[in-house]
Design a protein that fits this description.
The chain is an alpha/beta fold. The chain is built from twelve helices and eleven strands. The strands form two sheets. It has a six-stranded mixed beta sheet, sandwiched between helices. Strands 1, 2, 3, 5 and 6 form a five-stranded mixed beta sheet that branches. Helix 8 packs parallel to helix 9.
Length: 306
């Protein structure tokens, strides 16, 4: 487990143990979890933007030096937030902060504050495993289990002892993953027989099967062909009606096409030539790509550097 650096207490009201379990735990329904209802219905445009994550001066270190530091911004509910920047700037490190995947890396240390639905995600009484049930992740390379298509989707619900008809859960997840029509007649075949694009959509459907609140995607299309990439992008646009999505991407066109907000990271060198990532700019995606506030952002998104 990574060392958690204790910060001074802020002015937020502490929540009871029951409140924590309601907000960060296995979802039974929206009311008990404290999260928004996931009813599949498109929502009316909000008067004010709702934040699902709030990051305050977040820093992640592996050993004595920080890999990424000084990260402060909100991630909106039912938005797609893109993290862009050159290799080594800490995008993947940061996205793993959001579901505590860095806990699994020996020597990793997280400083600052990460609030999820107003709760300190790294609080001493918050269970990291429960967090990952609510905040799912799709990785760069498709990683289906060596099982049938059906068993890949059913794996999570079985582990969590989810109630309901398993056939219905599997079908619903595959429909949400835009894969049902392609695989409904071969659910018992091995998932390794699918194309790369289908495998990645299977991994997204597997994530959706346990009804998460947030989906994290770490370069989900980097190994896919343009047609498969287009299908994943179309799927993301549909899914944001029900879920909040954070995506790491090196594809500037993809970030511009699908995201609502964009954070641009860069790499800085200290006096000892140690590299660490920092956020240069966070704003509406349209502004980042058409009228950025920082010259470094403009140089990156226009291809002058990178």
């Amino acid at each position: 487990m990574p060392e958690r650096v204790t910060e001074p207490q802020d002015k937020r009201e502490p929540e009871t143990e029951r409140g924590l379990s309601q907000r960060i735990g296995v979802r039974s329904d929206a009311a008990s979890s404290g999260a928004p209802a996931l009813d599949g219905a498109p929502r009316a445009k909000r008067q004010a933007r709702e934040a699902i994550f709030t990051l305050e001066e977040v820093q992640v270190s592996y050993g004595p030096k920080p890999a990424v530091r000084g990260v402060s911004f909100d991630i909106g509910m039912h938005e797609i937030t893109a993290l862009i920047g050159p290799s080594g700037c800490g995008k993947s490190t940061l996205i793993r902060v959001l579901n505590r995947m860095n806990d699994l890396i020996p020597g990793a240390r997280v400083e600052g504050k990460v609030f999820y639905h107003g709760q300190d995600l790294y609080g001493s009484d918050v269970d990291a495993v429960e967090v990952r049930k609510r905040i799912g992740m799709v990785f760069q390379k498709p990683n289906p289990f060596p099982k049938s298509i059906y068993d890949n989707i059913a794996f999570g619900p079985r582990v969590l002892s989810m109630k309901g008809d398993m056939d219905e859960i599997v079908e619903r997840a595959l429909q949400q993953g835009a894969l049902w029509e392609e695989v409904k007649d071969r659910l018992k075949t091995n998932a390794f027989g699918m194309s790369g694009g289908q495998q990645q959509r299977l991994c997204i459907a597997r994530c959706l099967a346990v009804s998460p609140d947030v989906i994290l995607m770490d370069e989900p299309c980097s190994a896919l062909d343009p047609i498969s990439t287009g299908k994943i992008e179309d799927l993301m646009m549909e899914l944001k009606q029900q879920y909040s999505i954070v995506i790491v991407t090196h594809n500037m066109q993809q970030a511009a096409r699908v995201s609502d907000k964009t954070a641009f990271f860069t790499v800085e060198l200290d006096d000892e030539e140690h590299r660490s990532g920092r956020v240069v700019e966070f704003d509406d995606t349209d502004k980042i790509f058409t009228n950025p506030s920082d010259s470094r952002t403009e140089a990156y998104v226009t291809g002058k550097v990178g």
